[in-house]
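Q: Could you fold this chain for me?
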Amino acid sequence: MVVFFLVFLLGFNSNLSIAASPDPEKVSAQEIITRSDQVRNPAKPFRMMSQLIEYDGGVARNELTLIIFSKEDKELGQYKTLVRYIEPLRDFGKLVLMNGSQMWFFDPSSKASVRISPQQRLIGQASEGDVVTVNLATDYKAELLGTETLDDADRKPKICWHLDLAPARDDTIYSRVEYWVEQGTFYPVKGKFYADSGRLLKIAYYHRYKEQLDTKRPGEVIIIDAVNTRQVTTMNFSDYRYQEIPEAWFQREFLPHLKIE
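A: Sure. Below is the predicted structure, expressed as structure tokens.
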């Protein structure tokens, strides 16, 4: 998730003050989501490293390190994303490609690419769709439910807009998202992600904001299983860099020929 969390999911100047922001009473729900997307997602092509750790009762069980390459399709308003596995060593060189609504997994040992679902489990509570870059404002229609004071991951109270996100198209990763965005900064604080059945799947907290590519972005997303809260997965983001990315990298047919230094 990420990704939604992930893939959740960061080029907008976040040195915003409440005084420089729109009147909280007048800003629209869709604008809130758009501004929050700009906090999470750089506007120019970029790469970053993501380390995922799965915990059970506070004990680390599995780890996965990825390098993520993302480039916005200006016409569609959504990102093309290439994910490269770095660790563990047994997975080194494996790739996941997300282009439009299609996601592919490539294994260099077999030279084969297979279609996968963004909902497919990656590690712990994180799915393949959580690690790709996503603009929520493109995929969802937002409704403002109200303003709430909400504790963030550090148990510090934040004044937030509470939004309900409904799919704007048929191929969204989640069928419904509840989303809390801090007033003034437009920082995402918390998300709740639902299945098609209406069942709550996971809860995410956006945490450890730090300067990355000209603005502050979440350095960590904490994903909690909605049924068993002992099961937690963290997604840590680092080493952001602007990088020109060839269009060929986002073509399934090119994956067997891809060479990344």
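A (continued): The chain has two helices and 16 strands.
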